[in-house]
TrEMBL record:
The name this protein goes by in its record: Bifunctional NAD(P)H-hydrate repair enzyme
Alphabetized Gene3D superfamilies for the sequence: 3.40.1190.20, YjeF N-terminal domain
Protein EC: 4.2.1.136, 5.1.99.6
Role noted for this protein: Bifunctional enzyme that catalyzes the epimerization of the S- and R-forms of NAD(P)HX and the dehydration of the S-form of NAD(P)HX at the expense of ADP, which is converted to AMP. This allows the repair of both epimers of NAD(P)HX, a damaged form of NAD(P)H that is a result of enzymatic or heat-dependent hydration.
Organism: Sediminicola luteus
Length: 513
């Protein structure tokens, strides 16, 4: 599902008005009627007090229309207009008049006015600012926003939580509404998925307001949301007359004394993702544990007992997963340099191999094009330097990926894969996956898909989806706290089967913690 910029949404608005021959006011009516239908179907006329806080732009206009429909259906409403500017939008004014025609008199709030009392049992509709916010609100408006946040009432935000910009980081976190639920028009917004701004939308949902399909399909978007609908067409079915050679040979290089488990996890995940053959390259101390824990994997041992010291093997792998549990000893750094100097096989690089590369940036030029790097946030910072905010992080990461022609994965609650100027945002996964070794599992899964002939970008985006889905299916059985990396591996098969289950997880329309 595409994610659009504010500019693209305004363009879609215009082309909808032209192509569907409707007025902007009719489009607002359509959007706000959807808000009403959503709320009405849940409240069923309940006698709860609904406070609508409206701005003076089109977001406020949506609030005005919603207020009218609620009143017509007998709801108990209070309409408050936050008059932060003299420049009221036409459709806001039109719908303000329509309210007045129905004898609903809004309460106009200015800089020195007392704020309405809100009980924690009430419902707040937040329609103060939408995607038109372009500067931090004035101090008195921030006080209004704080008043909403402090009320402990349920807050339903229209389009986005007021106070968030769509394409840059907020400057003052007190200026943002903390929404319990966001009803966003037509398409998800990037801010829902970034750690800094995503925290303001506890849950979000998309309302399809019928914006011009042709325009939306033609837009060249930077970010794409990845759900089942996006990955399913990539799935490669197994052929009847295939054999294990058809599905590639993965080599997993890593491990050090005390960290052999990481290689076991990655190799196991790689096998469970369908790699035809898996060989692990580890220091000698890992030989027995590896062969015992995972009889399906073959093992090549380094000459060094405790660490990888000289990477030599006589197999021809399809792809190499590199770095999990490998440590950062000088001997290992030397081995990595020597290996990278001659290696031509595509790589999936993780963990301490990334840290070694961060300390020796000249290694970057030796990595084959379109290899995959999977840093968690701290590893990313070592690789690309620090950032001011999430938007700068994305820009720096995109530039890095372009400079070295690498696929860069930013791991997190919504893992983002960057390549060729585009970003693919994952929708699966849960906080139970914040557990030791879950990243090792992901490395094994990406490696396993590349082995089977998926191109590196698809393999990465698909594996991240499946990894999260495995975690989601596992958590249903064991709960967040008891979820372990091994448990994620146990559910990889179910995640594949789930691709063909039309009942659940069919798309990223709704997100729930
Ligand atoms: N296609 C769609 O998806 C549809 C969208 N619709 C709705 O329209 C909403 C966007 O509406 P909008 O453009 O009027 O902007 P909105 O957010 O209401 O802000 C109002 C104005 O405030 C101003 N301003 C900005 N920052 C400020 C500040 N700090 N302090 C004071 N003033 C500030 C700024 O004007 P400026 O002063 O910069 O000229 C801005 O224009 C969208 O979120 C959705 O709810 C639907 O109705 C129909 C279909
Ligand atoms: N809150 C979360 N929600 C969803 N996924 C998460 C969350 N926290 C971590 N993960 C996922 O778990 C994995 C953690 O990777 P990493 O930090 O490298 O772990 P490790 O080094 O222990 O293997 C990543 O794939 C990440 O996206
Ligand atoms: K809003």
């Amino acid at each position: 599902m595409k994610i659009f910029t504010a500019q693209q949404i305004y363009e879609a608005d215009k082309s909808t008005i032209v192509n569907q021959q409707i007025t902007s006011d009719e489009l607002m009516e359509r959007a706000a009627t959807q808000l009403f239908t959503w709320l009405h179907s849940r409240l069923q006329g309940a006698p709860v007090k609904i406070h609508l806080f409206c701005g003076i732009g089109n977001n406020g206009g949506d609030g005005m229309v919603l207020a009218r429909h609620l009143q017509e259906h007998g709801y108990l409403i209070g309409v408050h207009v936050v008059t932060y500017s003299e420049k009221r939008s036409q459709d806001f004014l039109l719908n303000l008049d329509r309210l007045k025609e129905r004898k609903i008199w809004p309460n106009f709030i200015g800089p020195n006015d007392e704020l309405p009392k809100i009980d924690k049992e009430d419902i707040i509709v937040d329609a103060i600012f939408g995607i038109g916010l372009n500067r931090t609100p004035d101090d008195w408006v921030i006080k209004v926003i704080q008043h909403l946040n402090n009320s402990r009432a349920f807050i339903l935000s229209v389009d986005i939580p007021s106070g968030l910009f769509v394409d840059k980081a907020p400057k003052n976190e007190d200026s943002i509404v903390r929404a319990n639920h966001v009803l966003s028009f037509q398409a998800p917004k990037l801010i829902f998925f970034l750690p800094q701004t995503g925290i303001y939308s506890n849950q979000w949902e998309i309302l399809d307001i019928g914006l011009d399909r042709d325009y939306l399909n033609s837009v060249d978007n930077v970010y794409e949301l990845i759900g089942k609908n996006e990955v399913l067409p990539w799935y490669k079915p197994r052929e009847k007359f295939s054999h294990k050679g058809t599905y590639g040979h993965s080599l997993i290089i890593g491990g050090s004394y005390g960290k052999i488990g990481a290689v076991i996890l990655a190799s196991d995940a790689c096998l469970n993702t369908g790699s035809g053959l898996v060989t692990a390259y580890i220091p000698t101390c890992g030989y027995i544990p590896m062969q015992t824990a995972l009889p399906e994997a073959m093992v090549i041992t380094d000459t060094n007992e405790k660490m990888v010291s000289d990477i030599q093997f006589d197999i021809t792998p399809t792809v190499i997963g590199l770095g999990i549990g490998i440590g950062q000893d000088n001997i290992t750094t030397g081995a990595l340099k020597e290996f990278l100097r001659t290696n031509k096989t595509p790589l999936v690089i993780d963990a301490d191999a990334l840290n070694i590369i961060s300390k020796n940036k000249e290694f970057l030029k030796m990595i084959p094009a379109q290899s995959v790097l999977t840093p968690h946030p701290k590893e990313l910072e070592r690789l690309i330097g620090s950032w001011q905010d999430d938007f700068e992080k994305l820009d720096k990461a995109k530039a890095f990926s372009k400079q070295y022609d690498l696929i860069l994965v930013i791991k997190g609650a919504h893992t983002i894969t960057l390549y060729n100027g585009k970003g693919y945002i994952n929708t699966t996964g849960n906080p139970g996956m914040a557990t030791a070794g879950s990243g090792d599992v992901l490395t094994g899964m990406i490696t396993g898909l590349i082995a089977q002939g998926y191109d590196s970008l698809r393999a990465t985006v698909f594996a991240i989806y499946l990894h999260g889905r495995s975690g989601d299916l596992a958590v249903e059985q064991c709960g967040y706290q008891a979820l372990t990396a091994s448990e994620i591996i146990d559910f990889i098969g179910d995640a594949f089967l789930d691709l063909f289950n039309v009942q659940e997880g069919s798309g990223p329309q709704e997100e729930m913690e």
